[in-house]
Specification:
With 139 residues, this protein is α+β, with helices and mostly antiparallel strands. It contains 4 helices and 7 strands. Strands 3-4-7 form a 3-stranded antiparallel beta sheet, with no helix packed on it.
């Protein structure tokens, strides 16, 4: 038992993988990683697998390219506006403001890395909660 007495023992509490906040964070971090790869390599083309019927009518699993939209646009004056998207809509980072101004295309990757760190720390959880619970009116 001398081995256990020399170690720092703590209580074990498992994080629930079903926690919606953690799932939202993981989803957004995966999308940010895609954008980082797209910013570093313009020829980056992620793939997905889907089932397609061949000419004989049987289902085949094929790999097809996935469409990825850039989250940043360059203005006429050379500045770049970066948006963070959750789903198909940009996150409203402040009241009426959904964009982040960066100097040029080279500053997109560091900005995305900084945002990724914030998402992992839970800084964007209130924004993700608000975005995920908005449902269209059925009137």
């Amino acid at each position: 038992m001398t081995v256990l007495t020399s170690m720092n023992l703590v209580a074990y509490e498992r994080e629930s993988a079903r926690d919606p906040k953690i799932q939202r964070r993981k989803k957004l971090i995966a999308k940010i990683d895609e954008q980082i790869q797209l910013a570093t390599d313009p020829n980056f083309q992620p793939t997905k697998t889907k089932w397609v019927k061949d000419e004989f009518g049987s289902d085949q699993k094929v790999t097809v390219p996935k469409r990825v939209k850039r989250w940043w646009n360059e203005n006429l004056d050379g500045t770049v506006v970066l948006t963070i998207r959750y789903g198909s809509k940009p996150l409203e980072l402040a009241k009426g403001k959904a964009g982040i101004a960066v100097e040029n295309d080279g500053a997109v990757v560091p900005a995305l890395e900084q945002i990724k760190t914030g998402v992992a720390a839970g800084d964007l959880d209130p924004l993700l909660d608000a975005q995920s619970f908005t449902k269209p009116n059925k009137s």
